[in-house]
Amino acid sequence: MNAEDKLAAALWEADRHLQTLQEALKEWEADPVAGWEALDADRLKVRLVDQLLFRFTKLQDALGERLIPGTLNLLQEPFEPWPMRDRLNRLEKLGFLDVNRWLAWREIRNRLAHEYPDQPEMRFAALLAAIDAARNLAELYERWRQQIRENQRSNPS
């Protein structure tokens, strides 16, 4: 698969996760719950939260594993030997992302992996942070997608 095909595949995948994530965010925002107990008592909300968290994770993976290399390749950056932090720093300089926010989203994701059965308020706070991060990640990807389109228009192959 050539570089253009890899970028197209990365965008296709990210677009799918974005669409489902945005639908789930809209549904959550229309009827949020006030606490962990209310969430835990509503099986439909639990499924919605599962979808939100799953798509947040999948969008983050698609961007990190496929779109970052695809974007750097599009911009003809010699990124292959670079560690991830250097790739992120370069994309920040090019206006695609904010490294600190990206790393904060990774930290939020890592926090989701830990269960706190005796601390429902901590679990709910982590969930709300993840929902906010998902919303911000979706916005970042939309801007990123637009920058790629503009770059492709100004630099056709």
List keywords for this structure.
elongated; 157 residues; single chain; mainly alpha; 80% helix; 6 helices; Four Helix Bundle (Hemerythrin (Met), subunit A)
Would you summarize the structure shown here?
With 157 residues, the protein is an all-alpha fold. It has helices spanning 3-30, 36-41, 43-74, 84-93, 99-112, 120-154. The model has no long low-confidence stretch (mean pLDDT 93).
How would you describe the overall organization of this protein?
- There is one protein chain.
- The chain is an all-alpha fold and 157 residues long.
- The chain has a single domain, classed as Up-down Bundle (Four Helix Bundle (Hemerythrin (Met), subunit A)), CATH 1.20.120.
- The chain is 80% helix and 0% strand.
- The chain has helices at residues 3-30, 36-41, 43-74, 84-93, 99-112, 120-154.
- Helix 1 (3-30) runs antiparallel to helix 3 (43-74), helix 1 packs across helix 6 (120-154) and helix 5 runs antiparallel to helix 6.
- The chain is elongated.
- The chain starts with a helix and ends with a helix.
- The relative contact order is 0.15.
Q: How are the secondary structure elements laid out?
A:
Blueprint: H1 3-30, H2 36-41, H3 43-74, H4 84-93, H5 99-112, H6 120-154
